[in-house]
Backbone:
């Protein structure tokens, strides 16, 4: 079975970009994010940075298929003239785990629906164009539990399969009083089924996806 287990995102927060149209100024920013909780603090920070702006419009996408979450926010601009064109650029660049914000200062001349769409689209495009786009793997995380006596067996497989250990601990089992090992490890999605089967077939070794 073929897996698409990679995705594209941005490596770092972008530098500020500026687009001007009929006196209005549009400042654009792009941020790498991992969850929705990061969005509000970023918006609040930009409001403090630009207290006299009239709109703080944004869009984001998080996750990979089939679990994708996204939002497009017009922040008072006419419906679908700001957030949607910003989100369109995230899609156009093929990115996820990214937030793009466009801060607008009104210049006294209304741009109309078409003008607004073009301005927000262009500013978002400018912000993403200067970002370093990187490819990351979609990883599956496992928790492997075992009696201490089986430590060498577990570590041998981890070494053979070149798995990354994300945490490791020992604890005393309440029933037996013997030490129990717990290792959290991860592998890219395309290898997950094979890795799970390898450990699942081992006597006295427990593995679960977390």
Residues:
């Amino acid at each position: 079975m073929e897996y698409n287990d990679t995705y594209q995102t941005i490596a770092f927060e972008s530098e500020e970009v500026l687009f001007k149209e009929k006196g209005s100024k549009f400042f654009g920013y792009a941020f790498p994010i991992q969850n929705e909780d990061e969005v509000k603090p970023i918006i609040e920070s930009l409001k403090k940075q630009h207290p006299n702006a009239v709109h703080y419009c944004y869009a984001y996408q998080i996750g990979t298929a089939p679990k994708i979450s996204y939002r497009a926010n017009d922040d008072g601009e006419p419906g679908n003239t700001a957030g949607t064109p910003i989100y369109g650029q995230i899609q156009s660049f093929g990115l996820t785990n990214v937030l793009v914000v466009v801060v607008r200062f009104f210049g006294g001349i209304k741009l109309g629906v078409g003008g607004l769409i073009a301005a927000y689209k262009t500013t978002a495009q400018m912000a993403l164009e200067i970002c370093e786009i990187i490819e990351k793997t979609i990883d599956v995380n496992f928790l492997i539990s075992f009696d201490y006596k089986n430590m060498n067996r577990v570590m041998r497989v981890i070494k053979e399969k070149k798995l990354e250990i994300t945490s490791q601990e020992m604890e005393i089992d309440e029933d037996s009083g013997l030490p129990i090992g717990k290792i959290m490890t991860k592998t890219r999605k395309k290898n997950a089924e094979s890795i799970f089967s390898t450990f699942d077939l081992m006597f006295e070794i427990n593995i679960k996806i977390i």
Remarks:
- The chain is about 30% helix and 40% strand.
- The two ends are 22 Å apart (CA to CA).
- The helical segments are 39-49, 83-92, 112-129, 151-160, 189-200.
- The chain has two domains: 6-136, 138-209.
